[in-house]
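User: Sequence in, structure out. Go.
Assistant: Echoing your sequence, followed by the structure tokens.
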Amino acid sequence: MKTLDLLPPPETMYRALVNRDSSFEGIFYVGVRTTGIFCRPTCTAKKPARENADFFATPDDALESGYRPCLRCHPLDSTGRPPKLIERLRTEVERAPGGRVTDKELAAMAIDPSTARRQFKRHGEAPTVAKGRAPLFAERIDTPLGAMIAVADDRGLRLLEFIDRRATERELSILRKRLRTNVVPGEHRYLTATHQQLADYFSAKSLEFDIPLAPVGSEFQLRAWKILQSIPVGETRSYSWMAKRLGDENARRAVGRANGTNMICIIIPCHRVIRADGTLCGYGGGLWRKKWLLDHERRRKESGR
């Protein structure tokens, strides 16, 4: 089923947008043509005219159409609580005999059955499927370069990304699918360590990390990311250098793709890879962040001398 097939009629979505209807949270996202921003349906920003509103089933769809995430409602932040409607429905299902609520019973609760089904398709998972799986725990971490999301389990840190990065939502989906589990807000010892060591990094107290890492990727990607970790703090290397270390001098493009799919930024330092002529390129978090990180590390290294 295509993601567009999950969308309600456009006029229904626009009405929900104008009314900031929380029951449509997670059902659709709206792109505003005049600003190039996309939002949640409950965003408090001024609502666009109908002709300036594009509707999307997922944040990825909006990003692929060229829209940027809203800094007010944070549509890429997937670590929050599920919509209130879902919490209410889960409670009713647990109470119901046989764990089933009929359309008639939903209507009696003033809940539209079609809306309920769409919400569950987005946010629900059968208990028999989820039972027995250890979840991935996620935490938001604020940094001088913007909010980040960290994800970990008992194997180690799985993801560390800037929340406003276009690929973040897709990477969370990759983790959920490949590890066959859910990402939930929660505490974990590796998240606590990540929070503390990032604070030390940005304050220049220490630029080293010793958190167990458990990246998810192909054999080639894992090799490339291991090589990234060998680049000393305050130094840079070229894509050609990485390609040679991987045993193929012509693999520069493959190296670039592997760096671009690194889900644990800063700690696996893909920002330390630059062009052979010394210019900056290819950083998903934005070249301004790449420059900041390199300058920060160089200053710390020079002051250490």
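User: And one key feature?
Assistant: The chain is about 40% helix and 15% strand.
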